[in-house]
């Protein structure tokens, strides 16, 4: 019993969540796009910081190269002048600078890889956000159409006023013919006033006819024209 109730509760909760999601779909889409744009902005800031660091490391490496080249020149001059002691000091300095240069080169290679990966991620995210924005435009148009259709259905197909108007139109169009009704009423009145039997007797040849017929007029016209 408890398992059944739990299942029903979970099902009702899922349906309620789906209905709520459908109702606020556009708001949710806009919020998700804002969140994506926030993440993209953070990724851009990270990329900018990496690029700045990469440039700084490149400049530092360039200065090291210049310093090493200058010391090597000076050390050769000291050796040529017989100042091996100064040349030894220069050699020690050059060794230290070359070790630092190796570290800087490794760091620069790592930065280059990180910059490339981050830039690719930023470009991919930017394309997806553009697609999301275009999709939101389509979704907004579809949502407006759906709401307009629902409103139209409520205002035309589901109101008692429209149905009552349709019934009244059908009643008027399909109502009795007033001319036919008048003839029937005349017949009823004639039967009530005993004139109906006189008309039938006259038509049968018993006594004069009470009404002039088109055939009688035509016969009279023929007889007078001969």
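^ Assign residues to that structure.
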């Amino acid at each position: 019993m408890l398992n059944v109730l739990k299942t029903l509760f979970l099902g009702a909760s899922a349906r309620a969540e789906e209905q709520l999601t459908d109702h606020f779909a556009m708001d949710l889409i806009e919020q998700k796009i804002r969140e994506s744009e926030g993440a993209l902005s953070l990724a851009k800031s990270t990329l900018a910081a990496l690029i700045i660091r990469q440039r700084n490391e490149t400049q530092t490496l360039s200065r090291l190269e210049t310093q090493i080249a200058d010391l090597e020149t000076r050390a050769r001059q000291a050796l040529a002048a017989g100042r091996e002691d100064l040349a030894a000091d220069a050699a020690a300095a050059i060794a230290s600078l070359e070790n630092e240069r190796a570290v800087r080169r490794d760091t620069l290679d790592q930065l280059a890889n990180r910059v490339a990966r981050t830039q690719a991620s930023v470009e991919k995210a930017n394309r997806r956000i553009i697609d999301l924005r275009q999709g939101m435009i389509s979704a907004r148009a579809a949502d407006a159409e759906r709401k307009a259709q629902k409103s139209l259905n409520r205002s035309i197909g589901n109101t008692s006023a429209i149905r009552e108007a349709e019934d009244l139109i059908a009643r008027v169009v399909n109502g009795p013919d007033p001319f036919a009704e008048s003839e029937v009423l005349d017949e009823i009145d004639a039967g009530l006033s005993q004139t109906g039997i006189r008309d039938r007797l006259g038509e049968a040849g018993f006594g004069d006819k009470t009404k002039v017929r088109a055939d009688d007029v035509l016969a009279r016209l023929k007889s007078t024209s001969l």
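The helical segments are 2-23, 25-80, 84-157, 160-173, 178-192, 195-203, 214-225.
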